[in-house]
Fold this protein.
Amino acid sequence: MNLSIVIPLLNEDESLPELTAWITRVCNKAKFDWELIYVDDGSTDDSWQVINKLRNENDRIKGIKFQRNYGKSAALNVAFEAAQGDVVITMDADLQDSPDEIPELYRMVTEEKWDIVSGWKRKRYDNKLTKNIPSKLFNAATRSVSGIKLHDFNCGLKAYKKRVTKGIEVYGEMHRYIPVIAKWQGFRKITEKVVEHRPRKYGTSKFGWERFVNGFLDLASITFVGKFGKRPMHFFGLWGTLMFLLGIGISAWLIINKIIDPTYYLTNRPPFYIALVLAVIGVQLFLAGFLAELIARNSPDKNKYGIDEKLGIS
């Protein structure tokens, strides 16, 4: 099969018929052997009924229905496992991504041999204050930390080689960092393509300000896990040694100062105690967070989700 198109969705029943018809026209014109996988992430509207109807009209349409809302990362992960195409293209269900981009994204992966082609919505129709400005800050931070020169990490419109989608795991809220995850797995041929961003036609955005806070926390997590997940002692051993030597040095200074001037502490209160306590607490908290992340990554249930129903997928 040439192409799998993966679309996670939450309460998008109004847009699905129009989106499906548009994708069908584009893929048939390009003569792809294709499939379209919808993942219903716990919708409370008629999205799943619409997907069933579309499936009855076209058996290229497939579906996975979660029992509840797990998030976009979970939806992408289960769809990546099910996808059969040599190229996998992801896009959003709200009609803000144009299916007309599909043939060129497919060509860039198959002919130019890119591992990942990420969409770049250079001209956006989102609210500048609540989305555009925070998005620019988020993308700048991710570029700086990851070394991947993309302008729009969180664009839902992306194309992947099949081996990329089969070689990575997406969990939590890590869908924003799929290029970063792929890079840590050795997939370094990553580029971007300017794509059309369309005004929202139906419904409202499902994301709020909290996604940016979570995004920066996830960036820190994926960076440390990517760099030190297989060798945590290289990081914690270094800082642990430095903290130990600093503690020994401070203790030695205090002892020597006490011997030289026994009355010093009667008139002075060195601030070292507060600094030392804060440093110890900070290291302990960070270590606890890192260990929790390692436990989560190795949990056998981290990518097990309650699936209510499947259409066309064994």
